[in-house]
Amino acid sequence: MPFLCLEQPAMHPHPVSALPSALLDLTMLRLGSSSRVTAAGLARWQRSSGCRRMYQATALQTSPPPSFEEFLHGASALQTRYRKETGSLAVKPPTGSKLSLHPVQELEKRVQALDEAIESGQMEFSPSFYSEEELLALYEDVLSTPMSPSQESADQTALEAVRRAEEEEDQRIIEAAETRLLDPFDKGQREPVVYRRILSRVHEILSRKEAIQNLLKASSSTVPLGVLSIRECEALVRTSVKAGDAQAAEIALNIMKRDKLALPENSVTDVLKLYSKSGNAQAADNLLANFLTEAPTELQRHLHVQAHLKSESIDELPTSALDLLHNYEGQNVPAPMQTYTAVITSLFSRPSSLGRAHAWDLFSHMRYVAHPTPDALLYTLMIRACANPITTRYSSEPEKALDLWTEMTVDQKIQPTVGSYNAIILACARSGTKTYVNEAFRLARQMLDSHRDARGYSPFRPDKKTFCALLEGAKRIGDLGRARWILAEMVKGVREDDVNGVEAEIDEEVMMHVFHAYAAYKPPFSRAATVIVKNAPPGSSSIRGTRPESEEIQMSVQVADGVSASSSTSLAVEEDDDRPSFAHIPPQSRAEVIREAKLLFNRILQDQSDAASSATLSLPFAEKKFKNVELTTRLLTSYLSIFYRHASLEASRELFWTLFEEVGVQRSARTYVEALERCGNARRGPERESVTDFADELWAKWKEVEEAGYGNGKPINARLVERAHVAMIRVLSITDNLDRALTHLRSFAAKYPPTTIRMPSPKYAFQSTRTSLQAARPLVRMTSATEVPDDHVPPLMTFRDLEVLHHRLIDEERPRDIGYVTWLCKAYQGSLRMRRDGSVKAKPGAGGVEEGGQKVVAKIPGCP
Q1: Which of 178, 318, 435, 490 is the most buried (most CB within 10 A)?
Q2: CATH class for domain 373-491?
Q3: pTM over 0.90
């Protein structure tokens, strides 16, 4: 070790004081015997060590360090002479003090103690070391979700094992009871089923016992007979319930009651489950009245309400279930939250604005009287309901949905589920505005990235509902690029290296949204906005095209306002051919949109067939990805909408009359209405010359569908009837067939006169607005009576519907016909006002309003 390492800069007067004294002295002592120590270096060390020892002697008077001569015992004469010449002070040890160890040993002991102190200090402040397995287990606990799919499947497996063991035990008990009670020579003579033979034998024994007691005039409670044990009765009840024999199960319960046995709660609940599943409300009422002496448990209350809920028709509001629910609230034993969730779900499933409004009222009512904090399932249900608002003025209510989402995840700190994310994404996507559609895609990214576990897996993996919700948003803003990307992700499926991939099959609903996205898409290139110019001037934006004559033509693209676009980019204009084209970028023209739609539809037909699917240049995959797409009426109607928007009327007409026959699917009322509306939007020129023939063909078929609806008791929705008639009147008006249009309007007014609108809709008891702290209706409402639309209004006409006809009559100067159109619109408007006033003034009844002494029950939905 060279002595140069101990030299310090001159700016530090005592540089070695930072080192421990024992370590420095031991180092210099070992270097002293080395020939590499120079005189100058030793002098510098003497000066620094002398100052240090003087400081230590002053600070520690009790135990001074040994002198320099003692430390350097045996050193060279040069070092001793240098010490004497410098005259450095040395502190002598106290009198009588004696060193027990050699100085070198003492120094080594001190250095060893110093090393031990350093090691102990490092152990105190050094971080703990974890293995990779320990860190992974730690992060798995921290980042785990409350319930993973694997845990749910494990719980289901355990429950299934318990159920099988219970069934085996019941079988053994019934076999033992059969051996004890039945005659071996009388098996199968009266009842072919074992449990029924046992019940019949026990019933016979109990009847004899009661007859003897009545003969002796003794109380039936004095001598319990004990024919069956409670365990045997429970086994008989479970076996009867498993076989779906409710009568035998009630006989077993009755035997326990007659024999003075305690009725097990599980046995009554099992029978009640059977009645709830079948929707036998009357039997559920009798069961609880005959075999319960105390208030029903939460599960029994839930099953009781469920029985009433399933017993009512889907065309009527569940009034009996609502009355029972409020009856339990009046007894201070409210039903559990899952019961309110089931009732609210049933109300939302009714095709009625009144049912949806009452579902929101019941939700707010529940939070005041029963359960202040909803669970994740109920929050999901209400967020999902925001995507289908009560009023038709809005396509969605994203603000309300986001408020509920924030309340659930932030305020209540409830862990969301995949269904919750799907609900909030759908509510934002259906709004139709870019702001909330982008919010839907942001929530989808949050769903995948914000809740990953220690291994990088996301517990909220997207499913078909997630993709359908995103497609809803993409099609409503006409974003075909996103719709194509979502379809590509679904076609791609799960890769082996993708831990977060999802296998979401492509079905009819997915392709319906994709076709709607093509229909709503606005291609950037429009041939109507181009001007063909030969020898275009330099600097103008040109598009090179190829004509059949192989003549190159320069076309200057001009925007709608007449300003030429200054771009040097040249694009190849393709002719309208049938070559497959499915590029990475969205289609740039209407012809490309039609080609892509045809390609997708042909691939659906190909995958539906038995032939093997072959890969093509445009769709390079050989699997039958579209094999689960069912060819339904709404799928074909959505496919037709692409031609209504991007193809000519003649092409749409030809496809309309051939598509359904080739596929073998029946047309619906909406199919004819959309075709008539396409005729009503015919462009000027050749389309209007041939649109009347197509409209007449459609109208002949529509009249058959409309009459068939009234004939089978299922009339078509009144709003669809309005749209069909309005479209036909518009077609006749734009083609200058004003006489036919007026004749059509008069026939409509004769079939649906304004006077039929005046009668108000029935009013239920729970629609009462009287303030009451306890009643069989919601105490808190989220929707007022004026905000609930009336679903029973017959078809009518407004001035907006007849505006085109009115303008044409003004051009033709026909004041008499103009007056008739004005009078008819005012008559419908006045009848609507009278209907509204009568609905507000009507008094609610038990299940309808009293009209002429007869009770009118409200049906859902209703058309005259």
Answers
A1: 318
A2: mainly alpha
A3: no
